[in-house]
Specification:
The protein is of the alpha/beta class. It has a domain of 247 residues: Aspartate Aminotransferase, domain 2, CATH 3.40.640. 48% of the residues are buried. Bound molecules: pyridoxal-5'-phosphate.
Length: 400
């Protein structure tokens, strides 16, 4: 079968809730993927940062195979011999005392919101079912009905109401607006340290620190959604680390499994996480031994291969080199570590055609929102590979 055959099958039998580039990937290794015709591409999206460790990392693959031959699912009705070790390793690595494992990122965000509400009722003393959570314009936290209830993106929400109440939205980067939005019923502020899906929006320096101070001042929880920015992507373990901010809850996912398997988690200290009691929350697959073994290996790779440091070093180089391309189409190059957005001017005609042109030159990227090309290669990339990519990117940005 050829590329067009696969595309046709997918279009005929699959829901059209994505608009993929027509490259049919059959194999991946490190930073490279190969399509069904054997053409090699540099993956500069990394499955939205789920592949920080690169495609089919051998150490994670071995952990997956090993564990799959032993036991894959116990349900949390029983215990398994992988989850406790994942808990311990997460605590040692992140400094949070406890974790609650789920599968998708959206599920972990929902978990954090539930815990914040429970904390509001049981600890802060907010009247039951009155808790409010502050969120930001242009946020992306997932696709469940409650999460899209506080989305500001018409495409994500307009046809999907009625919506879940209990959320107040303020402009991203505006800490004064956050402070004004706080009421006695405010349970939490939920923030992405950098807004990835919105187009790699980096907030003003000090914003996270201000949110931390505001939460302290008003007895409100600070929740950081680090599903995309966390686990090395921005050049530190967490993007919050750039401002030395420790949130009350950290939500992680994506690279927690190195792209093998959906694993997500909420991290918090004991006084907060301890509020969940048996039966109040759960997931059949959450915390399963296969996912836990994969996550342990994925975290091990991040640590042992110094991927955050690599992202810091090569991210700086990549951003500098991209910024030097004096293309008439480019409005701004921004980002942290290897989470980089190239924003095009409105008259450039949208980012999509540039992504298509890059695909022709064997670089896979995706537009995010209409005018931003996101560059987020696996963190195992090296400078030589960036130097292979840069002339191609330059050519596309200059000649189109
Ligand atoms: C991807 C993402 C999510 C949702 O994760 P899923 O695994 O797709 O449910 C939530 N928050 C952020 C910041 C993300 O990038």
């Amino acid at each position: 079968m050829r590329t067009s055959d696969y595309v046709e099958l997918e279009e005929r039998y699959g829901a059209h809730n994505y608009y993929p580039l027509d490259v049919v990937i059959a194999r991946g290794e490190g930073v490279w993927v190969y399509d069904v015709d054997g053409i090699r591409y540099l993956d500069c999206l990394s499955a939205y940062s789920a592949l920080n460790q690169g495609h089919v990392h051998p150490r994670i693959l071995n952990a997956l195979i090993d564990q799959a031959q032993k036991v894959t699912l116990t349900s949390r009705a029983f215990r398994n011999d992988q989850l406790p070790l994942l808990y311990q390793e997460l605590a040692e690595m992140t400094g949070f005392e406890m974790a609650l494992p789920m599968n998708s990122g959206a599920e972990a965000v929902e978990t954090a919101l539930k815990l914040a509400r429970k904390w509001a009722y049981r600890v802060k003393g907010v009247p039951r079912h009155q808790a409010d959570i502050i969120t930001f314009g242009n946020n992306f936290h997932g696709r469940t009905i409650s999460i899209i209830s506080f989305s500001s993106e018409p495409k994500y929400r307009d046809d999907f109401g009625p919506f879940t109440p209990g959320f107040t939205s303020v402009p991203y980067g505006d800490s004064a607006a956050v402070e004004r939005a706080i009421t006695p019923n405010t349970a939490a502020i939920s923030v992405e340290p950098i807004q990835g899906e919105a187009g790699v929006i980096v907030p003003p320096e000090g914003f996270l620190r201000e949110l931390r101070q505001i939460s302290n001042r008003h007895n409100v929880l600070l929740i950081a959604d680090e599903i995309q920015t966390g686990l090395g992507r921005t050049g530190k373990l967490f993007a919050c680390d750039h401002e030395n901010v420790r949130p009350d809850m950290m939500v992680i996912g994506k690279a927690l499994s190195g792209g093998f398997y959906p694993v997500s988690a909420v991290l918090a200290d004991r006084p907060l996480m301890g509020l969940f009691e048996p039966g109040e929350h759960g997931s059949t697959f959450g915390g399963n031994p296969l996912g836990a073994a994969v996550a342990r290996a994925a975290l091990g790779v991040l640590r042992d291969e110094n991927l955050a440091e690599n992202a810091a070093r090569l991210g700086e180089y990549f951003i500098d080199q991209l910024a030097e391309i004096s293309s008439p189409h480019v409005k701004e190059v921004r980002g942290k570590g290897l989470l980089i957005g190239v924003e095009l001017k409105p008259e450039a005609g949208g980012a999509r055609r540039f992504c298509e042109a890059l695909k022709e030159r064997c670089i896979l990227v995706k537009e995010t929102h209409q005018h931003v090309i996101r560059f987020a290669p696996p963190l195992v990339i090296d400078q030589e590979t960036l130097d292979w990519a840069l002339p191609r990117i330059r050519e596309v940005l200059l000649t189109r």
